[in-house]
Write a structure and sequence with these properties.
Helices cover 28% and strands 25% of the residues. The chain has 198 residues and is an alpha/beta fold. A hairpin with an 8-residue loop joins strand 7 and strand 8. It is globular. The model has no long low-confidence stretch (mean pLDDT 95).
Length: 198
C-alpha cells in the first residue's frame, strides 16, 4: 500500500508543518545543491528538518547535482554530510540527477559520479537513492549499477510506466497541501521506512 509524501525546498517558503503533518506520511527535504559551499545550502533546510524532527514527521533529503566528474560528486556528498550529521532520518539521501549540464555527460560518467557520491555517503552509514525523471531513467541512467540503489522516479501521469524496480514515485508537481502556500510536489512511497528498503 502506498504512503503519501511531499518533497520540499526553499521555494515552498516558510511551511506550517503542524498543518501539513496530518496530510502526509513522509517528506523528502532538499538540503542543497552542488558543491560543499555554504551559499549552496537550501535556505530553508535547517528549519524544515528541525520542524520535521520536532513533530515526528519521517523524512529524508535530496541534493540537486551539477557534478561533471567524480571529484565534484564527492564534494556534493560532503555537502550532504555536513548538513545532515545532526539529524536522524527515516528515508534515504537522494541524488537528484536532472540538470541539463549533467545530461550532456556520457552515461558512463553519470554512473561514475553517482557511484562516487553514493560511496562517500555509504561509508558514513547513510542509505542512498537516485532521483530522476522517467526519460532519464530510460535513456541516461542505464548503467546496471543504478539497480544497486533505491529509485525515486518523476513522472506526472496517472500511471508510472516503468519496467524496473522503484520505491518512490513523484506523480505531481502541482499539488496542494494545507500549510504550504502554492504548489508542492506529491509522492507515493512504496516502502514505509529505511527498515523495509532492500
Amino acid at each position: 500500500m502506498a504512503t503519501d509524501g511531499i518533497d520540499v525546498s526553499q521555494y515552498q517558503g516558510t511551511i506550517d508543518w503542524e498543518k501539513v503533518k496530518p496530510h502526509i506520511d513522509f517528506v523528502i527535504i532538499r538540503c542543497g545543491y552542488g558543491q560543499d559551499i555554504v551559499s549552496q545550502d537550501d535556505a530553508m533546510f535547517k528549519r524544515n528538518a528541525d520542524e520535521c524532527t520536532r513533530l515526528g514527521i519521517p523524512f529524508g533529503v535530496y541534493l540537486y547535482s551539477y557534478a561533471s566528474n567524480e571529484k565534484e560528486a564527492i564534494s556534493e556528498a560532503k555537502h550532504v554530510l555536513r548538513l545532515v550529521k545532526d539529524y536522524k532520518m527515516e528515508y534515504p539521501v537522494y541524488y537528484d540527477l536532472e540538470d541539463p549540464k549533467v545530461g550532456r555527460l556520457s552515461n558512463d560518467q553519470i554512473a561514475r559520479n553517482a557511484k562516487a557520491f553514493a560511496d562517500e555517503l555509504e561509508a558514513n552509514d547513510y542509505y542512498v537513492g537516485m532521483y530522476a525523471n522517467l526519460f532519464w531513467w530510460r535513456t541516461k541512467l542505464t548503467d546496471p549499477l543504478f539497480n544497486d540503489y533505491t529509485k525515486w522516479i518523476a513522472s506526472y501521469n496517472d500511471v508510472l510506466n516503468y519496467d524496473g524496480n522503484y520505491d518512490m514515485w513523484q506523480y505531481s508537481s502541482t499539488g496542494f497541501v494545507e500549510g504550504i502556500n502554492g504548489y508542492v510536489d506529491l509522492d507515493f512511497g512504496y516502502k514505509d521506512s529505511l527498515d523495509n528498503l532492500d
